[in-house]
Design goal:
The chain is α/β, with parallel strands linked by helices. It has helices at residues 19-32, 50-57, 83-88, 99-104, 109-122, 134-138, 142-153, 183-201, 203-208, 222-226, 243-250; strands spanning 8-12, 40-44, 62-66, 93-96, 125-130, 166-169, 210-214, 233-236. The structure holds phosphoenolpyruvate. Phosphoenolpyruvate binds at residues 12, 170, 175-176, 214-217, 235-239.
Length: 252
């Protein structure tokens, strides 16, 4: 069953890099990871760089992801972007429900759910981001917060082991702060997420799903995280912005 769980190292560039910078990066990363065989790789540049980067990544094992998606296919939705548009720009993955989207752009579990359905129905691999804030952790609400994000986020989705879904556990207090969750904290939450998936969707899916950790992952802490039994990869923000550093993480 572990066949489905090839490690995935994913880079979320956030709102960094112009098209030209993205192309330069993609060319460099392609060379640096040419030797990688047993790890899946994904980068998520801004929308404006997707098409150009996709040309460079053609015939490599570096996948392309978007940082968001809207649920309608087309229409009068100024500023939004749809699944067919992302697919035509070369994407295979899409990050959904990142804590920055939830915090600054009013995303809720309900809108996250609509985005997830649109992505999954179009054949994109969704990376659902979940995680608690520092206040919620201190108030011992981590598990109830995750329960809601997972249950409401995945509500009504048709999921089985052949329709890949990635979940990224990203404690909000560890994103961009330099604070990484301890290995015990990470393993405890990842095992819990898998248990919740088993409860709601069955053991087959729980054993097939990849659960990534995100939050200040760096070259010097990635191998400890990847050694944990329920960690199947990493979602990397800041440390994915330099191809050399990201390549070191990919070579964990
Ligand atoms: C992220 O943006 O998903 C993230 C984990 O950021 P960082 O690695 O910078 O903490």
């Amino acid at each position: 069953m572990t066949d489905y769980r090839t490690p995935l190292i994913a880079g979320n560039w956030k709102m960094f890099k112009t098209g030209a910078e993205a192309v330069q990066y993609a060319k460099a990363l392609k060379k640096q990871v040419a030797d990688v065989e047993n790890t899946d790789i994904m980068i998520a540049p801004p929308f404006t760089a997707l098409s150009a980067v996709s040309e460079i990544l053609r015939d490599t094992r570096i996948g392309l992801g978007a940082q968001n998606i809207f649920w309608e296919k087309e229409g009068a939705f100024t500023g939004e972007i749809s699944a067919p548009m992302l697919i035509s720009a070369g994407c295979q993955y899409v990050i959904i429900g990142h804590s920055e989207r939830r915090q600054y752009f009013g995303e809720t579990d309900e809108t996250v759910n609509r985005r997830l359905k649109a992505a999954a129905n179009a054949g994109l691999i969704p990376i659902l981001c979940v995680g608690e804030t520092e206040t919620q952790r201190e108030a011992k609400k981590t598990f109830s917060v995750l329960d809601k994000q997972i249950k409401d986020g995945l509500n009504g989705l048709i999921l089985d082991e052949h329709h890949p879904l990635v979940i990224a556990y990203e404690p909000v207090w560890a994103i961009g702060t330099g604070k990484t969750a301890s290995p015990d904290q990470v393993q405890e939450v990842h095992a819990y997420i898998r248990k919740q998936i088993a409860k709601n969707f069955g053991n087959m899916l729980a054993n097939a799903i990849r659960v990534l950790y995100g939050g200040s992952v760096k070259p010097d802490n990635v191998s400890g995280l990847m050694a944990l039994p329920d960690v199947d990869g990493a979602l990397v923000g800041g440390a994915s912005l330099q191809p050399e550093t990201f390549s070191q993480i990919i070579h964990f």
